[in-house]
Amino acid sequence: MEISSKENTRFFSNNTILPVDRSSFKSESSASREKQSCCGGIKVFLGALSFVYFAKALSGSYLKSTITQIERRFDIPSSLVGIIDGSFEIGNLLIIILVSYFGAKLHRPRIIGAGCLIMSAGTFLIAMPQFFMGRYRYERFPSTINSTVNISPCLQDKSQTPLTSLEKSQAKINAGCEKEAGSSMWIYVLLGNLLRGIGETPIQPLGITYIDDYAIEENAALYIGCVQTVAIIGPIFGFLLGSLCAKLYVDIGFVDLDSITITPKEVQWVGAWWLGYLIAGVISVLAGIPFWFLPKHLPKPESRKDSSTSSEHSKFIIEDNKDQHKPYQQQMKIAEMAKDFFPSLKNLFGNPVYILYLCASIIQFNSLIGMVTYKPKYIEQQYGQTSSKTNFVIGLINIPAVAFGIFSGGLVMKKFKIGVLGAAKLSLGSSFFGYLLLLSLFAMGCENSEVAGLTVSYHGTKQMTDYEQAVFSECNAGCSCSKNDWDPICGENGVTYISACLAGCQASNGSGKNTVFFNCSCVGIFESSQSSSAVVGPCQKGNECPKMFLYFLVISVITSYTLSVGGTPGYILLLRCIKPHLKSFALGIYTLAIRVLAGIPAPVYFGVAIDTTCLKWGSKRCGGRGACRLYDSSALRYVYLGLTLVLGTVSIFFSVAVLWVLRKRSSPPDETLSANGERGTCGTKSRKDNFVNSDCLIQSTYWPEKETRL
């Protein structure tokens, strides 16, 4: 055809009259126009899909970056935040089967466009509570809020406070209680995230299959690789956006910022978490617009019509595409297709390699999802870092390490022509060394902050135990203090006190962030004290903590890279050991199991475990337990890292079982497994061709939620 085309060009350029087969020329020119139309259409779709992947990855990672902000803003425990985080997976599961099965029969681009609108609506809904629940209130002693009334922090006699001031304060509290009692605004965040999950569902299955159906076969891998690359860039911007918004006060634009007496370093600080959701929602709306103008079908490339040159996966697709030319009445009915469902399911679960790998993946993703969800909280509480700096570090260091690890895994597979058995070894080695590195993080923690009455006694002579914690002492016995307040001050002795009242402070000077407390009886009795003054805000962590944080970052990045290297080999293993006609079904079951058994429960039980390490709970204005104000650093480290490591170790045992079954069933010449699970090779191709198969490589690059893991 190329020679004929060149001859036609020569014919027109020389203006020579030659006999021409008009029908042949017409078919060639129409084929050329079809090729141009196909390439143009698929590239437009590719650009639109890449932008959608960026939008969904950005909003998903931004949610992870705001976990601690949401917890503080709504005064809820970590376990409830875990339920909010898992609601995305629940929304996804509600329609994933319907979308995956019926979506291909409908207008795929428009379904993706509708999904983007639903996703944006959910994102906007998450931000809505900020505009209906009033201004954020944090615990502060009156003299630090630019008050003109000089009140002693240690209220030995309540007559010190003017009656009108007390009445006004109580009236405000009662009004706030009436408002809070009638609503639980965090439910809107949960429903919004649920909508996000519903809207995100059609993007991956319908978008990738659309490209695979209408792209030239040799370009399909490149196109989908571009989409996945953009999907990795999304979380970087998501966490950086989270870092920026965490620096801004939650009520920015609604209050005078000069009147704010807390800083981003304090646990009461809440950033402008809602602002990023508005930005992410606008991006989702823009991303969905192009899909409403794209066609249902694109012209088929000529190369995809030649089944003799197609790979195993392409042959399977071509056979299905032939059915598109049949009348609708002749195609297989839903009831007939349903008859094959249970036999296929039985066949799939009868494959020991698939079952063992599925179990290993479920347990490992429990480990990774729980670790990633609460990683910002762990860094903030363990190393005393701000939310802004935590998100910045994760977005700029950890996410690129994950991306580089996934790329390296695929590169190693291609460079060394690794087969199925080699892929199993590489995946196992990646997990083993990754969790081994994670073990070293136990030694890279900070000691508990010295908080009088919680971690040290008021005399500073010993560490406190759970049974000996007492916020009241002889030094503050004459003060009328509340044990529920959390308004920390830092004494000159380097010890943090829960409030100025519990520190026994008799006088104060200044206002706002510059308030200084004097004659603090509890500060003076501390054995290392030289004065009895204190300033607003908690004391900084120990001098060794910044160094430990640096070590943690280095090991964390190496661990993220090491664990990510096994992502691509693991997917190669999954695809190579399944019958060709069951691949899509097997991947659907795999994704479903990961979401149901890892994506939903992991954040919940990790949150419950983390809540057990809380030393000081905040109190809601109307009573009841709020968000945690102070964690036991040592207990948090052992629970967070220990749970992650235990789950990872169990997954390694399943991976070893996978390797054992593969060794038992594989033949020595070819380290591959047949599609039906018997001894031999996956097909008639060599191990080299078996790996280089572009279609399998395409699917192997997709690691569920990889952009937010680690």
TrEMBL record:
<feature type="domain" description="Major facilitator superfamily (MFS) profile">
    <location>
        <begin position="45"/>
        <end position="666"/>
    </location>
</feature>
<dbReference type="InterPro" id="IPR036058">
    <property type="entry name" value="Kazal_dom_sf"/>
</dbReference>
<dbReference type="InterPro" id="IPR002350">
    <property type="entry name" value="Kazal_dom"/>
</dbReference>
<keyword id="KW-0813">Transport</keyword>
<dbReference type="GO" id="GO:0043252">
    <property type="term" value="P:sodium-independent organic anion transport"/>
</dbReference>
<dbReference type="GO" id="GO:0015347">
    <property type="term" value="F:sodium-independent organic anion transmembrane transporter activity"/>
</dbReference>
<keyword id="KW-0472">Membrane</keyword>
<feature type="transmembrane region" description="Helical">
    <location>
        <begin position="80"/>
        <end position="104"/>
    </location>
</feature>
<dbReference type="InterPro" id="IPR020846">
    <property type="entry name" value="MFS_dom"/>
</dbReference>
<dbReference type="InterPro" id="IPR004156">
    <property type="entry name" value="OATP"/>
</dbReference>
<dbReference type="GO" id="GO:0015125">
    <property type="term" value="F:bile acid transmembrane transporter activity"/>
</dbReference>
<keyword id="KW-0325">Glycoprotein</keyword>
<feature type="transmembrane region" description="Helical">
    <location>
        <begin position="270"/>
        <end position="294"/>
    </location>
</feature>
<comment type="similarity">
    <text>Belongs to the organo anion transporter (TC 2.A.60) family.</text>
</comment>
<feature type="transmembrane region" description="Helical">
    <location>
        <begin position="639"/>
        <end position="662"/>
    </location>
</feature>
<dbReference type="GO" id="GO:0016323">
    <property type="term" value="C:basolateral plasma membrane"/>
</dbReference>
<feature type="transmembrane region" description="Helical">
    <location>
        <begin position="220"/>
        <end position="250"/>
    </location>
</feature>
<dbReference type="GO" id="GO:0006811">
    <property type="term" value="P:monoatomic ion transport"/>
</dbReference>
<feature type="domain" description="Kazal-like">
    <location>
        <begin position="469"/>
        <end position="524"/>
    </location>
</feature>
<keyword id="KW-0445">Lipid transport</keyword>
<dbReference type="Pfam" id="PF07648">
    <property type="entry name" value="Kazal_2"/>
</dbReference>
<feature type="transmembrane region" description="Helical">
    <location>
        <begin position="110"/>
        <end position="132"/>
    </location>
</feature>
<keyword id="KW-0406">Ion transport</keyword>
<dbReference type="InterPro" id="IPR036259">
    <property type="entry name" value="MFS_trans_sf"/>
</dbReference>
<keyword id="KW-1133">Transmembrane helix</keyword>
<feature type="transmembrane region" description="Helical">
    <location>
        <begin position="392"/>
        <end position="412"/>
    </location>
</feature>
<keyword id="KW-0812">Transmembrane</keyword>
<keyword id="KW-1015">Disulfide bond</keyword>
<feature type="transmembrane region" description="Helical">
    <location>
        <begin position="424"/>
        <end position="444"/>
    </location>
</feature>
<keyword id="KW-1003">Cell membrane</keyword>
<feature type="transmembrane region" description="Helical">
    <location>
        <begin position="354"/>
        <end position="372"/>
    </location>
</feature>
<feature type="transmembrane region" description="Helical">
    <location>
        <begin position="548"/>
        <end position="575"/>
    </location>
</feature>
<protein>
    <recommendedName>
        <fullName>Solute carrier organic anion transporter family member</fullName>
    </recommendedName>
</protein>
<feature type="transmembrane region" description="Helical">
    <location>
        <begin position="587"/>
        <end position="610"/>
    </location>
</feature>
<dbReference type="Pfam" id="PF03137">
    <property type="entry name" value="OATP"/>
</dbReference>
